[in-house]
Write a structure and sequence with these properties.
- Chains A, B: This is Transcriptional regulator, TetR family.
- Chains A, B: It holds the Pfam family TetR_C_13.
- Two copies of one chain form a homodimer.
- The first copy, chain A, is mainly alpha-helical and 195 residues long.
- Chain A has a single domain, classed as Tetracycline Repressor, domain 2 (Orthogonal Bundle), CATH 1.10.357.10.
- In chain A, helix 7 crosses helix 8.
- At the A-B interface, helix 6, helix 7, helix 8 and helix 9 of A face helix 6, helix 7, helix 8 and helix 9 of B.
Chain lengths: 195, 195
């Protein structure tokens, strides 16, 4: 790993553990085992390092989500698999947590990759739901745009509840709850036959 | 307002704006217009002040939610009114935001009022849903415990999405989405007559 990569990796870890306000340039240097001069040779400062770190985390998150959402199966099956996949729930979402950081949201450059990631995720979920609706798997009148926002919010809010309880249980309940509501939107061949 | 009250009020504001890690004792003193000696006369330090601040915020939140959830109307109407009430969305939830603060969740005393508030809210929403189900307003097989967790998560996650987008739109979409899914669980007299 190059020095620059080590610095970005250390920043990713620290942002996840401590947030942006709680992460000092000194702590990044210590974690990366890199001197101050070397850090400033590669990056203008904490903001530039954080931007590289956030972009790398966002890219990972997107690739993982897309792999599950683009897998074979019905819309409901793919969305279930995505919502139920194993997560480090008590650490929170590495992207979502940063939105609570006042110095991140007030910096348009740092906020942008967070916004893009969530916008992409909402869009991708809306596409999967629309596919399911078009194939007759989901109710004709399901509002795919708002439902997609609900699904992303349940994950993000589930992290918040889990951290406050120091337990994964509220996260799991929130996910099971929304999947129960979504399950009631399923329409299958037997329903059509009945109609 | 007494000096102690002024200190607690200032701490509440700063925690909401800057989080716990981002709030220094100095900043609290400045905001309250209170000297260091006077602050330490009233409170042992930042942790004790934050605890008083969080308890006051949690009490407010609970009182407001309970007023709406205990109002007349069907379960769906009361839950809609609660989810759709006016909120300072872009500032985030004063309770939820603190769960992202590493020094808050690692302090059992500070985490406790957050956990209690969300546990209470989930419990209260589950009661309202159970009432609706018992009165035949909502589907018999609706899982009230997990659905209640979903509703709280949608609000908390909605704040996260709104802050990342610097727009209330994703919050509003998430809320409308879950209300759409919950609306499909309504059963009314005309349904019973049809059956």
């Amino acid at each position: 790993m190059t020095t620059a990569d080590r610095l970005v990796e250390s920043t990713r870890e620290l942002l996840w553990e401590r947030g942006y306000v709680g992460t000092s340039p000194k702590a990044i240097q210590r974690r990366a085992g890199v001197g101050q001069g070397s850090m400033y040779h590669h990056f203008a400062g904490k903001a530039e390092l954080a931007l590289a770190a956030v972009r790398a985390t966002a890219e990972d998150m997107r690739a993982k989500a897309d792999a599950q959402l683009s897998a074979p199966g019905t819309a409901y099956e793919r969305i279930s698999a995505y919502l139920l996949r194993e997560r480090d729930v008590l650490r929170g979402c590495p992207i979502g947590r940063l939105t609570q950081d006042p110095d991140v949201v007030s910096d348009p450059g740092l906020r942008q990759p967070l916004d893009e990631t969530f916008a992409w995720l909402r869009g991708r979920l809306a596409e999967v739901l629309a596919e399911g609706r078009a194939r007759g798997e989901l109710a004709e009148d399901l509002d795919v745009t708002t439902t997609a926002a609900t699904l992303v919010a349940v994950l993000q809010g589930g992290y918040v509840l889990a951290r406050s309880a120091e337990s994964v249980e509220p996260f799991q309940h929130a996910v099971r709850g929304v999947l129960g509501l979504l399950a009631a939107q399923r329409r299958d061949v037997s329903d059509e036959e009945r109609a």
